[in-house]
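Quick illustration for those who missed Monday's session on complexes.
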Amino acid sequence: MDRFNRVSAAPFSAGDHDHGACIAGAVRNAQRICARRGVRLTRLRQRVLELVWSSHAPVGAYDLLRRLSREHDGAAPPTVYRALDFLLEQGLVHRIESRNAFVGCADPAESHAGQFLICRDCGSAAEMHDRRVNQAINRGAAELGFFVEAKTVEVSGVCPACRAAEGVPSGAR
Ligand SMILES: [Zn+2]
Ligand SMILES: [Zn+2]
Ligand SMILES: [Zn+2]
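Prediction with zinc ion bound:
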């Protein structure tokens, strides 16, 4: 499958994986992308990115603010929102509307509309990029005369780890 039809951009991670490596990889990606685009990944922006990446579950802006204000006295809400706007603009994080939260993008080199599978139990999210989903949305919207501005798709359900914990057989639900 080519890059655009590859479905799983960021699958669910196993609970015991080396998450430090995920964070380090995300920071390296961000540094490279920002350098190439000639935009500044300030220390605060990078710190907010690291905090968004503190797990694979979307993090709310309020949570980010709370964690950041523990580290920086001057971490006022506008500062954090500006940093988040920057990260969103650069495609380094995605906004998950249904949770009013943010999640790191594992594949931020090119801008894309992701499809997110969000676990209702542990809150972790996986990202898919399936061009066919975008095409179907474009087609349906065009038929209805609708102008599409954002195509983020959010799907709620149960992740593999939580399914295993619940003993739900695969294929059920
Ligand atoms: Zn991880
Ligand atoms: Zn993404
Ligand atoms: Zn889960």
